[in-house]
Here is the input.
Amino acid sequence: MNYENLISVTGVITDITNYNNDCCSQFITITVDGQQINIIMTQDTFVVDTMRIMPGMRIAAFYDSPRPVPLIYPPQYRADMIAVLRPEEDITLAYFDSSLTAIDNSLQLNLYQSTIISTLNGQAYLCPPGDHYLMVYYAATTKSIPPQTAPNRIIVLCQTTTP
Here is the structure.
């Protein structure tokens, strides 16, 4: 998977139905700042922690930005990955250098012993997480440039290519 092109949309699930009479695909409606967005979840969509998603949950759906989307309202995207979030939690997916600063300077990470670091399949990641694409779960940031955070959890997306 090319993580460089993934963009997220975060909202609360309001409805889940079958997609095109296919029991292996679901049509998820989320609300984002009062606006409705539709997410298509296929059998190829990776759900972090293999959680069963339900209405009322807050999720981040990551989709491939170069993939064509229908020009309809409400917008509709096919999710490549979905992560369930707590109400106060934010998430970012970006390439972080060895100093744990996102390549676009949007976030800098300050690790603590309580920070959980794992691979996408849930195994402990025992090396320094820098120089990888990271999915970072966090609750608050500083107002500095770049904003800094002490993440609750980091998922290292092991990939051999760099941006």
Summary: The longest strand covers residues 6-19. The chain has a mean pLDDT of 94. Residues 48 and 83 are 5 Å apart (CA to CA). The two ends are 13 Å apart (CA to CA).
